[in-house]
Sequence to fold (829 residues):
Amino acid sequence: MSVFRKGLKSRLLVFLAVVGPGLIVGEGGNDAGGIWTYSVAGARFGYSLLWAMVPATVGLIVVQLMAARMAAVTGKGLSDLIREEFGFRVTFFLMLALVVTNFGNVVAEFAGVASSLELFGLSRYIVVPLAAAAVWVLVVQGTYSSVEKIFLASSAFYVCYVLAAILARPDWKSAAIATLRRPETMAVADYGYQYVYMLVGLVGTTIAPWMQFYLQASIVEKGITLRQYRASRWDVVVGSLLAAVVAWFIIVACAATLHTAGRTEIRDAADAAQALRPLAGEYAYLLFAAGLFNASLFAASVLPISTAYTVCEGLGFESGLDKKFHEAPAFYWLYTLLIVTGAGVLLIPNLPLAHIIVLSQVVNGVVLPFVLIFMLLLTNDPELMGEHVNSRVFNVVAWITVAVMISLTIAMLLMRQ
Amino acid sequence: MSLVALSELLGAAVRDPSGTVRGRVREVAIAPQDHPTRVAFLIVRTSAGQRTLAANALKSCGSTVRTLTESSAWERNIASDGVLLLKRDLLDQQIIDVHGRKVVRVNDVDLDSTPLNSHVSLTVVSVEVGARGAIRRLARGVVPSFTLRALLDKIPPRVIPWEYVDLIETDPARRVKLKIAYEGLSRLHPADIADIVEDLPPAEREAVFETIDEEVAAEALEEIDPHIQVSIVESLDSDRAADIVEEMDPDAAADLLGDLSEDRSGEILKEMQPEERQEVTQLLEFGEHTAAGRMTTEFVALPETAVVADAIDALKTFEGSREALATIYLTGPSNRLVGAVSLVRIATSSPAAQLSGLSDPYIACAPDTPDDEVAALFDKYNLITLAVADEHGRLAGIITADDVITMLRHRH
Fold:
């Protein structure tokens, strides 16, 4: 008995020592853009898109595990590895694409902050600068472990969406069946281009390029090596599953109320919260709005720092939260500029927020396959990974994800013409 | 003499004596066994496969390479891990900049091409880590080479001379073949080595600690963040780990071994010399956050009858850390602490003076005194060292101020 307890305790300690990166990145994926996508998916198509969450989650887990394994085996960040294996030019353009993509995402996050607080009657001209300052201070003044703790605590607030969904009193049985059932090909015919478009958005927002870079970098920063990799793997899997569960509840909440009541057209996530008010009650409305605020602020904290890490590692600038401002100037400047300009855009009057969010999601989807291809090439390189190269199952799932993402994106672009 | 960048050379057309293009440069190789900086050969991709073009067959080097020999004379290239391949091993990789004391990424490599007899001799001069190398690689083949050169001349170079470059190679056998010994790194202050090592990925850290001198390794290891300390020691084999731990301060060694798994620390202890092992095992038994856990057992203690000359002799033969020498302790029968003489007093007194006459009122604490109280004693009495005495007043060890500073810095 005592042997068992000791084993359990030490295993728990190992797990707690490595927990964090996977959970944070998972919840970070459910950002302002994500919530918008899930809300629209639920409002417009009811339960009929729920099935896509299953393959998307499997894809997410497989992709994130590749990043985690690369981190544990090589002790290097993803952009470090891309630089070392594919050279400067490739890295430069990938980093450029990533900065543009992530900048779009940062704008979307601050848009989420603005629109969620506007529901409570607060002006964006006050809250956006405040939020930007808070984010900047939090990350620059804190050490990695304190920042990580705040992020972890913040990810608990995602329970808002679960509560909101329960208050919406959905038809749980239909929702469950719709999730596990084979998709109806009829749906595509019925809804056409809109359905494909939503599908790309759904997968694209679940597996975003920045997440892979962030995950790998933060596992490296935590000093996780192969010895702790088994425990770290659980962190990644649990984080991805929780992210998927939250997404599922958002879709269900909107499907049960908005779709059922025929309110299928919503502008953004804040609009969804507004629309929930008469249908699911005051509390559901408040929870939905609070959840959006939390998610947006959370991702607004994670995204700029992730971008700064990635770019500086790839291009060879000093980086890391453990360094002081003067030791890693490029790192902190990039970080600061992303926040200041990302938040600054929101202060332009009459900005079409919804369009910006959609655009950022689409750009994510376009850049993702490139990142995935690099990850696949790297994780299949025996010189780099030794015996830890991808198994066949991983390769199959990951290549399918790449192929599906590319073909869906092309299909979407073609159908839009 | 003229400089040619590695990125210019890679992909350059190789023309034989008749002027016909026979292939393109794939790699530039140095054989450290023969010469540490001179290029031994180029690897050229020809229509007949990868060929080795010996450096003494080069007529000129630049954006085109001209040779003295026909392509039929170039031997088939055989892969060998005894040569340093500049593109694979250096370009885009991390190196240690010994002069700047940090880890940097290589953007380009500068080679010097000097005519020598009938051919040109290529030698590595420096690595570029700044914007110039980056822009050259970005713009190459897109911007005409003439314009590019003019543009690059305007950018101030950020280069590290080759003698300040320490390569990182994780394969021990290859390290020997390439004669990588981290000589530059070893000469740095242990605290700087520690900072550099913390910036490296785990395999590279291990490589450094497998290679550098044990004493330097031990001092550097003491300065490294405890988490990284553990992962480094876990990755070394226990023989090597024991060699390094033996050289560490016993208190630092005990802290480190206390953080390792019991199996692992047992293995390392087994490999250690009996004397060092005993000291460390004693310290291991105390709680880490008490005076006994912080103390070192390497200090200078003399009988109360000793004179200044004895103290100076003892200082000369002392092998522990210098921090412990600030105070010399006096002991009476059965090792009981009776006095403490500061180094300043010894330096300013005549050799025949009795130490007991120079003794200040001494401060000591019990082995189970918690960290907070230890720090408070240092603060109150302005101590440089603090004696730790057991319940019978016997001197067990001393705590030095540097350990208290570390302890305070790590706490918040």
